[in-house]
Amino acid sequence: MKFTDLKSSLTSGSSGFGYYITGDDEYVRSRAVDIITEGVNFPEFNVVVMDQPSSGEVTDALNALPVMNDRRYVIVRMLTEAEELVAYADDPNPASTLIVCGRSKGKRGDKKDARLTSFLSGLTEVDCSPVDKSVIFKWIAAEGKKYGAGIEAEAAELLWQYCRGYMTTISVETDKLCSYRSGGTVTAEDVRALVTPSAEYAVWQLSSAAASGDTKKAYEILRASEKSLSEPEMLLSLLYKHFRKLFYTLVTPDESMLVRILEMSEKSIYAVKREAARIGATRLKDILLELSATDRDLKSGDLSRDAAVQVIIAAAAGGKTVKW
User: Fold this and answer.
1) What is the model's pTM?
2) Is the distance from CB of 90 to CB of 122 less than 8 angstroms?
3) Same domain, 255 and 302
4) Contacts of 102 (CB under 8 A, 6+ apart)
5) Residue 82: which CATH number?
6) Is 302 exposed, middle or buried (0-12, 13-18, 19+ CB in 10 A)?
7) SS3 track for 105-119
8) CA 146 vs CA 150, 183, 188: distances in Å
9) Which end of the chain is more exposed for a tag (fewer CB within 10 A), N or C?
10) Distance from C-alpha of 57 to C-alpha of 66, rounded to nearest angstrom
């Protein structure tokens, strides 16, 4: 189930004995846990947080009775095995709710890993990937009202782009922008002046500009981005991963396999496919070869770090005529 369906699911009471929180937006993941445990009395007794417990410790916590409340919540930050939980799932304590926020990844074919996967499949999954843009825009507008600040549509759109739709970052930046414009209106210029684009956003924009041969625009994007991107090793690594991701979407026909390889949602993969198709498989292959050669030269010392960024941007153009 999507995060946005969680509240209605709780109302219907069809959650089973526990939840498995997935997705990579930390703010949304945290909100999901808050929504599930909302309204609990005496949380110091009835909300138990465990880091990397054994399945036996989790089972014991689930079998304990709540204190002056009708429900007890056991939050497991990282579940490493489910040996003793498999039997618990057949006869769970009706007064306890398990919330698993993460799992260890075992080797393929490992029996313990298979049992863990099987156990988690019996929980209600809550997908906490970045939520729809419309939901985020409503949230931004509501936050603005708390400060007596309006937010222009263009500003909200730009903030969403800069943060790649992740509420973890959007929540912090919205607070900063609304505090700055308390009683006024947040504009797109405010976003450009006060918000640093995420590395992911910068890489998307930078790679698109470089692949189009517009290295002048690529440098403008780079100068406005996080300082870490000015480090040639970081820039090279991010660009290579980005173009490799694009290339995979064009040469991997099995979408379910693609989801596993890239560890992305189907909705996110659609955007990647669209960008990949614009560049084409042949040019993507050329770009990857150019970046690999640049990486080799940088590591061997044949390419100085001072000149590396310029060469990396040129490599990202894949031999296409560039505009300086």
Assistant:
1) 0.70
2) no
3) yes
4) 21, 77, 78, 79
5) 3.40.50.300
6) exposed
7) CCCCCCHHHHHHHHH
8) 10, 10, 20
9) C
10) 16
